[in-house]
Write a structure and sequence with these properties.
Two copies of one chain form a homodimer.
Chain A: H1 3-21, H2 26-42, H3 44-60, H4 66-71, H5 75-90, E1 98-103, E2 109-116, E3 119-124, H6 129-140, E4 144-148, H7 154-170, E5 178-180, H8 187-193, E6 201-205, H9 208-217, E7 230-234, H10 240-252, E8 261-267, H11 271-284, E9 288-291, H12 293-298, E10 303-304, H13 307-310, E11 318-324, H14 326-337, E12 342-346, H15 350-359, E13 364-369, E14 387-388, E15 396-397, E16 404-415
Parallel strand pairs in A: 3-4, 3-6, 4-5, 7-8, 7-12, 8-11, 9-10, 9-11, 12-13
Antiparallel strand pairs in A: 1-2, 2-16, 14-15
Helix pairs in contact in A: 1-8, 2-5, 2-7, 3-7, 5-6, 6-7, 10-11
């Protein structure tokens, strides 16, 4: 069997599994997730051994630092992975939820029922924990999952997936509910992306290059996660202490994330008072500032920002600052340069708060809070499959509900279509 | 400017319009729709003149019958089109709806707000009323729309769109809220489908060929409408009179539609009593029957069904009938041959009703009602942009809500991300 045939066969088996998994009871799914979590913990030594093969291969290629760190499975990381699976087991089952039923004039009752999407393909890089995290969310939401991890973590991913597959089967999940693509041949990605008759949704998890490859080659709907050029606008009416606290958190708490602050917009009215204090705090936290000409004049130790800075996702301890003339100006800057990911206003003016909330286009819009809170756990989804920047199906953090769709349900007493 | 540049420019202008339209008040949108409806009525003569050019071109090509009929704009059809626009104006505005807000442990309030998708491209064939119907739904839901109709209706579509465009502008809608692609060059479709940076969603409306072309060539998410291989299962416990009424309606009320019945499944227990009466009624209504071997033995004037019949969407007064051994057997047949469009059970057994409702995979699942009711108006959506057979974003009849997405909204008092 060649690669194309092999991948098609695996997807066909996954589709069969999906039909059964959609009707699987909550208890069966939860027990399987708990058993998987236990098995990951018990087989820590095996997982660490397999992970060592990946680490030495990566080291031989001369890689080190953050990549190596992200790739490493320690027993702490393995128990975190297991804990994540147990948390998903504890979440309410989204499948079968009925979203209201209303009675039509002809007497029939009409509602919608949440059902699984079917087969979900996850194409990911680096961190082996994605294998367990995403499989747990797919199983809980009644979807069969096909996992295609990066070659740098192939031994780790294969080891994790083999545990999930075998424990799943023992726990009564339909066979092939979890499918792992074992080959590191990159062609496998393209074969998967062509199978629109078998796979219902593709979720890429990784860097810009991977996401672009997936979006450009997929015949299957893709929920994608783009970069975040994230703004916070400090309005003239802002509580300055609150604004300082939020800006520092948004920029420095974890600067390499998509919801970290990249460009700060400050109302001209309060800039002379607010910015000198803030810049001192930022500089103490190791943040380099690149300011617009007005900011450059106002502050010391600041570089002059270029047009390029407004378009840049630094993912680093660098902050662009622009002084603006009021909310209109701030929202225009966000509309022009933002990536519609996470946007915040700090204000005590109610009409400004409401305008920002209603008019700013982003996956999450914040009043008086840090953009770092754009996260499935923080927003109460209980778990997260990345943050969608798509404008259809799901936008913002994707929890279990984002892995379902709705079917219409109709209960009648003999109603027919007239005229 | 060549075609590629021209289409890109039009889409760029539509995207600019979308930014403004998203913030347009309900009153402005409603007034524009009402003014458009009035203008269509007042310019009936112009529309009928332009339509005559399409009709004569089509007649010259030797076409006649249903295609010609569907293409014809009469003053009755024009007032129906205008009435449709007024009905959309009367619907509640979906934009800005807040879907519940809950308080997180840290005190911030989190909810979701319905917002427009952005720019929607409609690629359609034949009936010129689609121009007005789809534009109305897009405008009401705050989306800019790019219309690309078929060459056979080019004069009619251009005339309708020119009225919508000019009246829209006069009524205060942002310029380019409605864009019509004037060329009949088929390449324009491919140029549109490539503009994933400018167009957010593509909705094809037309035959299988058009939909396939769009799905296979689009870099933009597509909400598609596939064929309906629709079943009704008459359970042993069914009220036979109700079952007859529903089956006759589902098959004969408008057989050329996707939600019309194609294969009837009857429980073996009641087949000998039920089928002879039903087949007489069906035959009186002009329906040809193709039966499984058991049906063939039981009934007169029936052809023997082949494997192909179970896979066929007749869209005609032909019905395939299969006698099955209970609900399990019926659901297995539906899972194997159905197209997940519209599926019904006629039963008085509660556990059978609930199993069918929960387990059958379709855009709409009916208990004791005709599948012909799978329709936006009948299910209470107030209007309809086709029936989606996609499994993401929207499934079943698409109303105004299907043309929106949700953004997360967060109201805080200084909350930041910890740990």
């Amino acid at each position: 069997m060649n690669l194309k045939e092999k991948i098609r066969q695996q997807a066909t088996e996954a589709k069969q599994a999906a039909g059964h998994l959609a009707r699987c009871g909550t208890q069966v799914k939860n027990n399987a997730l708990l058993a998987m979590a236990d098995a990951l913990g018990k087989q820590s030594d095996f997982l660490i051994e397999e992970n060592a093969k990946d680490l030495s291969a990566v080291r031989e290629k001369g890689l080190s630092g953050p990549l190596l760190e992200r790739l490493t499975l320690s027993s702490k990381r393995i128990s975190e992975m297991a804990k994540g699976m147990r948390e998903v087991a504890a979440l309410p089952d989204p499948v079968g939820e009925i979203l209201g039923m209303t009675r039509r004039p002809n007497g029939m009752q009409v509602g919608q029922m949440r059902v699984p999407i079917g087969v979900i393909g996850i194409i990911y890089e680096s961190r082996p924990n994605v294998t367990a995290d995403t499989a747990a969310l797919c199983i809980k939401s009644g979807n069969a999952v096909i996992l295609r991890g990066g070659s740098e973590a192939i031994f780790s991913n294969k080891a994790i997936a083999s545990i999930l597959e075998s424990v799943g089967k023992e726990s009564g999940l339909p066979p092939h509910s979890v499918t792992f693509i074992e080959t590191t041949d990159r062609q496998a990605i393209f074969e998967l992306l062509a199978l629109s008759d078998l796979i219902d949704l593709i979720i890429p998890r990784g860097g810009e290059g991977l996401i672009r490859t997936v979006v450009e080659n997929s015949r299957i709907p893709v929920m994608k996660h783009d970069k975040g050029i994230t703004h916070t606008f400090v309005d003239a009416s802002a509580d300055m202490e609150m604004a300082q606290k939020i800006v520092l958190n948004a920029k420095t708490q974890r600067p390499a994330t998509c919801n970290a602050l990249e460009t700060l917009l400050v109302d001209r009215e309060i800039a002379p008072v607010f910015l000198p204090i803030l810049s001192k705090q930022l500089q103490e936290a190791g943040v380099q500032i690149r300011g617009c000409p007005d900011t450059f004049k106002l502050l010391e130790h600041v570089a002059l920002a270029t047009e390029e800075d407004w378009k840049t996702e630094y993912l680093d301890l660098i902050l662009a600052i622009k002084i603006v003339d009021g909310i209109e100006n701030a929202m225009a800057h966000i509309a022009k340069y933002g990536s519609a990911h996470s946007e915040a206003i700090i204000t005590n003016d109610h009409s400004h708060a409401m305008r920002f909330l209603n008019e700013v286009d982003a996956s999450a819009v914040f009043i008086n809070a840090s953009t770092r809170l754009n996260d499935g756990y923080e927003l109460g989804l209980g778990a997260e499959m990345g943050i969608s920047t798509s404008r259809i199906h799901a936008r913002g953090p994707m929890g279990l509900e984002a892995l379902t769709c709705n079917k219409f349900i109709i209960m009648g007493e003999g109603q027919v279509r007239e005229g």
